User: Fold these one by one.
Assistant:
Number 1:
Amino acid sequence: MKIEVLFPEICNLYGDLQNIEYLRRSFKENGVDCEIIDTALKTEPYFASHDDMALIYMGTVTEHGQELVMDALKPYKDRIRELMDAGKVFLVTGNAWEVFGEYIECDDGRQIPCLGLLKTHAVRRMMKRYNSLYVGKFGDMDIVGFKSQFTHSYGEFTPLFETVRGDGLNPEVKGEGIRINNFLATYIIGPLLILNPPFTKYLMRLCGAESDKLAYEEAAMDVYTHRLEEFMQPERGLTY
């Protein structure tokens, strides 16, 4: 099984690369050899000429890094659309998914053109960082996590999660994240997969795994259950 990690040298904030390490260890628990392909910023992505990736992952990045990522991915825009339409599994966390939208609006009104693969745009306000806890739903599954961002996003989208506590893609909506076929994107950091073992099991199955035993499963489920109980306490504040 192959997992491509895009630009880990810059898309590595908030420990989100541990999403992939946890996946690798969990696949190993099931006897699956998982090859991690780290694609550097100045190299051709593996996905450009291969179809055998089980997952393409990209994590949180700085604001300047977003522009570097867009420049790196623009030559492969049509290929990315082809893979999205074909149902290839993507997981994009934090602000990284904004580069797939139409543009990012800066504080000074400048608009940074993005890839235009999603009908969304982000509004960046560098003096108004939004930090919060998050609780949502993925079907019948509870989702927990954290947000730390200078942006909110707007536009047309099918949400990945439905918010129970916290903000969605922006304060006016309950939908959080975006899903197009198997393109899964969310602002949630944490890392998402370590914090949400049931969702990790779902992702493993989506990637083609025949079984979904997790690394450190008992401990992961205990912490997940405890965190969910804490985050749902009415007296617990969400923003910080």
Number 2:
Amino acid sequence: MNVSIRAMESSDFEILKEIYNQVIDERVATFNTEHIDLDDIAGWSESGLVLVADSGENILGFVRSFPYHIRPCYEGIAQFSIYVRESARGLGVGDLLMSAFLQALVADGNWKVLSRVFVENVASLHLLAKHGFREVGIFRKHARLDGIWRDVVIVERLLGPAEEDDSTIES
């Protein structure tokens, strides 16, 4: 399969909405329960990086970053979400997206990227481990989804200079 990774364009909004709303309905990768609209997606590029996996015929998935915190000292830390269309899962789309995404984050000066993943989302946890993420811990009962408490695994990866610099104050 020939897939290119590129920055999101406005012509992608409709298909990204479809992919994300599909994920919402599946209840496997987000606490969001209400479908989003095109205005929501239009705002994504204002708060971070959005890359899409494009087969030339269709958008197969996307990854997006958003700020970790508003305080200036955390400007080099990004949070992210990655979603792949159900019909494209298991084909390496997530792998391509994550490789390009990590390179783009380093190029933008980020030193850390993190996320939270449902504990039962083994495919995502495997993908992230493959790309050097470490599991930091588990937030127990992080939020309710359809009235049921869900746990999430906290993952992080150091980037660029932080990945290479081992000078840390030990407690």
